Amino acid sequence: MFKARMKFAKEGRAKYISHLDLMHTMQRAMARCKMPLWFTEGFNQHAYVSVALPLSTGYSGECEFLDFNLLTKTVPENAVHQLNAVFPKGLRAIEIYPLSNGGMKIADITWSKYRITWGFDSPVPAEFPKAVYALFGQERVEVLKRSKRGEKLVNMREFMNGQPELSLFGHIAVCEVQTGAGSQTMSPEYLTKAVRQYLPQYPISDEAYHRLCVYTAQGLPFR
User: Fold this and answer.
1) What phi and psi, each to the nearest 5 degrees, are found at residue 17?
2) Is the Cβ–Cβ distance between 53 and 106 less than 8 Å?
């Protein structure tokens, strides 16, 4: 038995697959392509599969990671192609590699880079990026942050790595930003919440969230 890690994308309609259903989908797909998964022993045997930082339902991403155990000593040849042949539309394996040295630890993930797409009912005003930069250029931007313990007023700048970057495309504004992950998680939805709270003159009609990459505290892309 040895550990392996798969980098995969979750896009299109697949972004509406819940985390639990994603786990079932992964196990069924691996069974269909005869991936030599290792199963736990005992009465209720099950394959060990684990996703690092599961995406919220409705989010898409191209830098997702699944850890699993194999019975073989190497990753089967053409494993990526075989999985993609049986995956439902929207799921795509990018690479599969062994974790012979244990690999990067999931606990080391500190930042997630997201692409936020904001839609407007009319062309986005040219001054919108300047207003957003001014907002998040402040040392304090307070929002109510939800957790299992309830709501708490926090300074969301403490959960952001640098300034967001904006581009305008007609009725759409695209924002790329790094927000806290792991123990200091902050959903990118809080940027939308802050814009609606502090910049109500720019009414956002819809939004979408796509994870581009995840990083360690040292700024290294997780792998």
Assistant:
1) -75, 125
2) yes
Amino acid found at 116: I
Q: Are 211 and 178 spatial neighbours (Cβ–Cβ below 8 Å)?
A: no
- pLDDT of 41 over the 80 cut: no
A 10 A CB-CB count for 59 gives 18
Closest CA to 86 of 159, 30, 10, 169: 30
Partners of 169 in the β-ladder? 172
Q: What is the DSSP string of the chain?
A: -EEEEEEEEE-GGGGGS-HHHHHHHHHHHHHHTT--B-B--SSS--B-EEEESPPPTT-EEEEEEEEEEESSSSPPTTHHHHHHHHSPTTEEEEEEEE-TT--S-GGGEEEEEEEEEEE-SSPPPTTHHHHHHHHHTSS--EEEEEETTEEEEEEGGGGB-S--EEEEETTEEEEEEEEE-GGG---THHHHHHHHHH-TTS---EEEEEEEEEEETTSPBP-
| Consecutive H or E run containing 31 | helix 19-32
- 45 versus 167: the higher-pLDDT residue is 167
Entry field: residues in the chain: 223
How many angstroms separate the CA atoms of 8 and 16, rounded? Answer: 16
Residues 175, 115 contacting (CB under 8 angstroms): yes
Joined tokens for residue 68: 């699993």
| % of the chain beyond a pLDDT of 70 | 98
What integer is the mean pLDDT of 173-188?
94
The alpha carbon of 79 is separated from its chain's Cα centroid by a whole number of angstroms, namely: 23
